[in-house]
């Protein structure tokens, strides 16, 4: 279980970015992190991944404190995919193989390459392994990056806005893949997402952030219309339509 | 055969051909049979044996390992500074070395010049090289100090390099303004990139520095592959980006400092070799890019040096002139080709 306790973080100018955030995500569970722009979602993901040191608080997994691990050891526990910028010219196979970085010293071993082949097969990427990642569509690239995170063989998966700039079909495809991997591999997954309907459809729990504070953390069923309306400053209504939770605004 | 294996085979053949040509041509003349006899110490021409073993061979060794060093420095700096135009020149190392050499010659009086029939000879090249080495390291130290500043971006480091370069350039000009004619001639002469400046000591030192530096950066090739995707990606994969950047700056600074101190300013190899390899191998990772660009850099500089000796034979041009004359159009062509491809 990923256990985040009382995380606070401020900029040097004293501006509070995160203020006392605490929640936990069980194995095989997917937590969607939502909130308006500037709420502190990406900063929180960086803190949990160890890229930023928090002012106070702790990030634990199965009893061990992640902030005390070396970057290399931490990368064997937490896989972090930041927002996609530009793909770097390389073959899909090499782009996925990069996920084995925490295990590679000089050159990748045969075992590393075998893991890549195995994960590519699982995600249906085998036919494109020799292609250049710069020639892939946004959805395909995101899938390659998720494959990279999977070969990292971690227990915690953090995806920062993985469905940005994707069409609806690809958004569903990526979220479906993420949920299946989370359940089958017993991962604790955090996904930063702006589409509240996708969040409610695929997540087990919701972390709602507002201006660095934790406005709510609850199972999807427990999310209140008032809470999201307050945070986003527009009237929103959470309804069950065809036995599925939906946000109407 | 894989494309990579074909590349290394072609490079090995070109290196062999250039080495044989370099052994035959150059100072001292001689026919092919004389060259072969002298190479195996079986002829009567002791002068030619001397030329081959004490002038041509160290010059070839220097060309290969200096070219390799400059190319490897280019690959690494372009990666860690996230700038395709980064090289030891961009960071002001060459201007630092030129200032160090000028300081040794003009202020410390280390390089009184003698005008000989074949050109200018520095009176005390060892001190001049030491000054150039110190100047080059001083320029790198400034960049390194900047890299320790939290929040300093790779672009910030490049701009710091431009500032350092201008500063050392101004210092050199100031020294030259107050120098005598012979000191000025010596200081300007030193800046010509010339592989004939050193003997075996310099060539073997360069080989050792180059091989050690190349092995060191090869050890981090997967870190460089990660950094290419951006700092956040690399950090998420357990790479300590700042540490890698600092180590890389130190190693490339030492490699470039030795090359510049011994052989003067040699331009474009650090830009040309990495970009030529990337043009052919678009998907190449650093495990391939580092040795491939290094080998190509060695072949390019050795070929340029042979051309420098052949163009106005028996007068040898400084190799830096050839690399710049040949490098500029080739580099502009590469840029144009890439732009047209991306349009």
Descriptive notes:
The complex is a heterodimer of chains A (249) and B (343). Chain A has 249 residues and is an alpha/beta fold. Chain A has one domain: Rossmann fold (3-Layer(aba) Sandwich), CATH 3.40.50.300. Chain A has helices spanning 41-49, 71-74, 92-97, 110-122, 138-151, 168-185, 196-202, 225-232, and strands spanning 2-10, 16-25, 29-34, 56-61, 64-65, 78-81, 156-160, 188-192, 205-210, 213-219, 237-241, 244-248. The longest helix of chain A is centred in the last third of the chain and has 18 residues, at 168-185. The model of chain A has no long low-confidence stretch (mean pLDDT 91). With 343 residues, chain B is mainly α. Chain B has a single domain (3-342), classed as ABC transporter involved in vitamin B12 uptake, BtuC (Orthogonal Bundle), CATH 1.10.3470.10. Chain B is globular, with a radius of gyration of 20 Å. At the A-B interface, helix 2 and strand 6 of A face helix 9 and helix 10 of B.
Explain the layout of strands and helices:
The complex is a heterodimer of chains A (249) and B (343).
Chain A: E1 2-10, E2 16-25, E3 29-34, H1 41-49, E4 56-61, E5 64-65, H2 71-74, E6 78-81, H3 92-97, H4 110-122, H5 138-151, E7 156-160, H6 168-185, E8 188-192, H7 196-202, E9 205-210, E10 213-219, H8 225-232, E11 237-241, E12 244-248
Parallel strand pairs in A: 3-8, 3-9, 6-7, 7-8
Antiparallel strand pairs in A: 1-2, 1-4, 4-5, 9-10, 11-12
Chain B: H1 3-24, H2 32-39, H3 46-80, H4 93-106, E1 113-116, E2 119-122, H5 125-148, H6 154-177, H7 181-191, H8 200-219, H9 221-227, H10 231-236, H11 241-263, H12 269-280, H13 286-311, H14 319-342
Antiparallel strand pairs in B: 1-2
Helix pairs in contact in B: 1-3, 1-13, 2-3, 3-8, 3-11, 3-12, 3-13, 4-5, 4-6, 4-7, 4-11, 5-6, 5-11, 8-11, 12-13, 12-14, 13-14
Task: Spell out the key features of this protein.
heterodimer; A: 249 residues; alpha/beta; Rossmann fold; four-stranded antiparallel β-sheet; 8 helices; globular; B: 343 residues; mainly alpha; ABC transporter involved in vitamin B12 uptake, BtuC; two-stranded antiparallel sheet; 14 helices
């Amino acid at each position: 279980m990923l256990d985040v306790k009382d995380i606070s973080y401020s900029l040097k100018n004293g501006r509070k970015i995160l203020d006392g955030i605490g929640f936990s995500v069980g194995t095989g569970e997917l937590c969607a992190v939502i909130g308006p722009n500037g709420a502190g979602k990406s900063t929180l993901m960086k803190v949990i991944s160890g890229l930023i040191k928090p002012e106070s608080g702790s990030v634990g997994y199965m009893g061990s404190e992640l902030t005390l691990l070396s970057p290399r050891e931490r990368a064997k526990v937490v896989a972090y995919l930041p927002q996609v910028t530009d793909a770097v010219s390389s073959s899909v196979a090499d782009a996925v193989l990069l996920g084995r970085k925490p295990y590679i010293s000089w050159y990748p071993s045969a075992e590393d390459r075998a893991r890549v082949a195995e994960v590519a097969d699982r995600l249906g990427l085998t036919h494109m392994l020799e292609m250049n990642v710069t020639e892939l569509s946004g959805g395909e690239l995101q899938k390659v990056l998720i494959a990279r995170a999977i070969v990292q063989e971690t227990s915690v998966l953090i995806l920062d806005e993985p469905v940005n700039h994707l069409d609806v079909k690809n958004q569903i495809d990526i979220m479906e893949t993420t949920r299946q991997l989370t359940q089958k591999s017993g991962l604790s997954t955090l996904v930063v997402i702006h589409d509240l309907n996708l969040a409610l459809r695929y997540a087990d729990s919701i972390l709602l952030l507002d201006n660095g504070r934790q406005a709510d953390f609850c199972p999807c069923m427990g999310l209140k219309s008032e809470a999201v309306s307050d945070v986003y400053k527009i009237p929103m209504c959470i309804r069950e339509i065809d036995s599925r939770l939906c946000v109407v605004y | 055969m894989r494309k990579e294996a074909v590349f290394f085979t072609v490079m090995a053949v070109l290196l062999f051909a250039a080495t044989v040509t370099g052994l035959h041509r150059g100072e001292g003349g001689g026919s092919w049979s004389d060259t072969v006899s002298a190479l195996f110490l079986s002829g009567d021409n002791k002068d030619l044996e001397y030329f081959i073993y004490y002038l041509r061979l160290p010059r070839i060794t220097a060309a290969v390992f200096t070219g390799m060093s400059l190319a490897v420095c280019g690959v690494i700096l372009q990666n860690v500074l996230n700038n395709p135009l980064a090289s030891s020149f961009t960071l002001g190392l060459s201007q630092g070395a030129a200032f160090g050499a000028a300081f040794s010659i003009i202020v410390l009086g280390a390089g009184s010049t003698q005008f000989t029939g074949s050109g200018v000879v520095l009176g005390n090249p060892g001190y001049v090289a030491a000054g150039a080495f110190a100047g080059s390291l001083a320029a790198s130290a400034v960049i390194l100090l900047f890299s320790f500043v939290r929040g300093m971006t790779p672009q910030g480091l490049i701009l710091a390099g431009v500032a350092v370069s201008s500063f050392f350039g101004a210092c050199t000009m100031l020294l030259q303004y107050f120098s005598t004619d012979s000191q000025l001639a010596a200081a300007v002469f030193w800046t010509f990139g010339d592989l004939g400046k050193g003997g075996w000591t310099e060539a073997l030192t360069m080989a050792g520095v180059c091989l050690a530096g190349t092995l060191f950066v090869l050890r981090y090739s997967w870190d460089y592959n990660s950094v290419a995707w951006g700092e956040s990606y690399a950090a998420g994969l357990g790479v300590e980006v700042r540490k890698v950047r600092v180590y890389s700056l130190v190693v490339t600074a030492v490699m470039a400092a030795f090359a510049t101190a011994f052989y003067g300013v040699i331009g474009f190899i650090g830009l040309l070799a990495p970009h030529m390899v990337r043009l052919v191998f678009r998907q190449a990772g650093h495990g391939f890019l580092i040795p491939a660009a290094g080998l190509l850099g060695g072949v390019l500089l050795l070929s340029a040096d042979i051309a420098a000796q052949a163009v106005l034979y028996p007068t040898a041009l400084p190799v830096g002139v050839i690399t710049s004359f040949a490098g500029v159009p080739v580099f502009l062509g590469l840029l144009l080709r890439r732009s047209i491809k991306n349009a």
